[in-house]
Amino acid sequence: MVGEMSIVPGPKYAAYSWSSSSSSGHAGGFGNNTVVDKVPPEMRYLVDIHWYQFPPLNPLWHGILGFVMVILGIVSIAGNGMVIYIFTTTKSLRTPSNFFVVNLALSDFFMMFCMSPPMVINCYYETWVLGPMFCQIYALLGSQFGCVSIWSMTLIAFDRYNVIVKGLAAKPLTIGGALLQILAINIFSALWTIAPMFGWNRYVPEGNMTACGTDYLSKDWLSRSYILAYSCACYYLPLFLIIYSYFFIIQAVAAHEKAMREQAKKMNVTSLRSSAENQSTSAEIKLAKVALMTISLWVMAWTPYLVINYSGVFETMSIPPLFTIWGSLFAKANAIYNPIVYGISHPKYRAALFARFPSLACTGGEGGRGGDTTSTTTTVTDGDKANA
């Protein structure tokens, strides 16, 4: 009996030497010495030598990451799916400007639809098990949908700029014009994201070995130049354009409000606006704030990933595998923010949502009234432009 017990294998987690690893990332007496040891042989050529210095991650981290990805996936797919359904099936919401909102929801929906299941599977196996080709596809789709999201927000910001700053001088946005702009940003994003498939940088497993992304550890400047150029095209440039738009939006609103107050003071009245005009103005400003909040959340979500990439390109710090987990989580969490922000702050959307799903209306009467009182001004419609 003793002999039989002596050959019984120990717990499968005994192979993980995370608790007894040395500073060099190796441990004695166990099968797995580095975070790369579980990577299938056909994937090894994609793994940078940098990761061989780190011991395997505590399996608890893989479990936590997988669980969080399940939650993020469910919330994002349900939330963005509901936004798409409400905006496309409610006639009053099918305006040219709201096509940008739907495109944003679509990119967030497909990001988590394509990213969450593979991540959960790989977290279960504690390494990438879906093969080199799917690693390329996974990283390409994540990069594509992320770039489309921020450029969709840029289009929303430009649209608000046209309505609030230019007013009657703005060229009315048509459905054809909106679709053309959406097509343009999708093609623009695709050109950048397929470049690594043709030799300008490459897609490789990240440090936690359960996801794939751009190779920011290569020492050659061809690969490094891609990281710098892509960050300019899909991070800095749209961010600059968004800040530019909102700077003048805020400036225009502030100047207009000041002029209205001074005129009202001269006429000894409280306000020059009617009640309906006050509601219209507050709705315009409110939607601008909603878009600004969404953009701020996007910046918070993708900046950690940018920091990781730049740390590798400029070798400013040694990137541990655990750090790459946070980058992945922050980036993918962005896909759940937008439906929450629009669901809470878009009265007309909220009214339509409560009408379709009454059980969601904890304060259904209030939501309905909010939708009614701002029914003509909560979105950027041609009517808004006429009244601007």
From TrEMBL:
One of its GO terms (cellular component) is membrane. SUPFAM superfamilies: Family A G protein-coupled receptor-like. Pfam families: 7tm_1. Keywords: Chromophore, Disulfide bond, G-protein coupled receptor, Glycoprotein, Membrane, Photoreceptor protein, Receptor, Retinal protein, Sensory transduction, Transducer, Transmembrane, Transmembrane helix, Vision. InterPro entries: GPCR_opsins, GPCR_Rhodpsn, GPCR_Rhodpsn_7TM, Opsin, Opsin_lateye, Retinal_BS. The chain crosses the membrane at residues 60-87, 99-125, 137-158, 178-200, 227-255, 290-311, 323-344. CDD domains: 7tmA_photoreceptors_insect. The keyword Transmembrane applies. GO terms for molecular function: G protein-coupled receptor activity; photoreceptor activity. It comes from the Eukaryota. PANTHER family: OPSIN (PTHR24240). Belongs to the G-protein coupled receptor 1 family. Opsin subfamily. This is Long wavelength sensitive opsin. It comes from Chrysis viridula.
